[in-house]
Design brief:
The protein has 122 residues and is mainly α. The protein contains four helices and no strands.
Length: 122
């Protein structure tokens, strides 16, 4: 592949999945905290015993769901880079574009707004 102009001389490794996982987890935690804040729970409130299981399942789904989706996107993009369908630069552009879109939809444009989500809960 020395003469290949596909731009795939530096293929993404499986370790880059952790970046996607971190972004997915951050988005999931922000979503979960916003939902908890919308329900009116504070950090000191107890969840009613009858709704403990549904609230726990919903919290886990909102927290871990985006991480699992991000991991699947990462695996697909990495396989496309390895097959030569997209370049390594396209991989990074997609990562940044998806992360920007997700956090914009969540209403988080910078780290201060992310910290504010946590302060509302604590």
């Amino acid at each position: 592949m020395a003469g290949d102009d596909s731009g795939n001389s530096h293929e993404p490794s499986e370790h880059l999945d952790s970046i996607w996982g971190f972004l997915g987890l951050a988005a999931g935690l922000a979503t979960c905290m916003k939902l908890v804040h919308a329900f009116g729970f504070d950090g000191d409130d107890e969840v009613p015993s009858g709704s403990l299981i549904p609230v726990t399942v919903l919290g886990l789904a909102l927290t871990l769901g985006p991480m699992i989706i991000a991991q699947s996107i990462s695996e697909r993009l990495r396989s496309e880079v390895k097959r030569g369908k997209i370049s390594y630069a396209t991989y990074w552009t997609t990562l940044i574009g998806v992360a920007g879109a997700v956090f914009s939809l969540l209403g988080i444009a910078n780290i201060d707004e992310y910290v504010q989500v946590w302060k509302n809960f604590l």
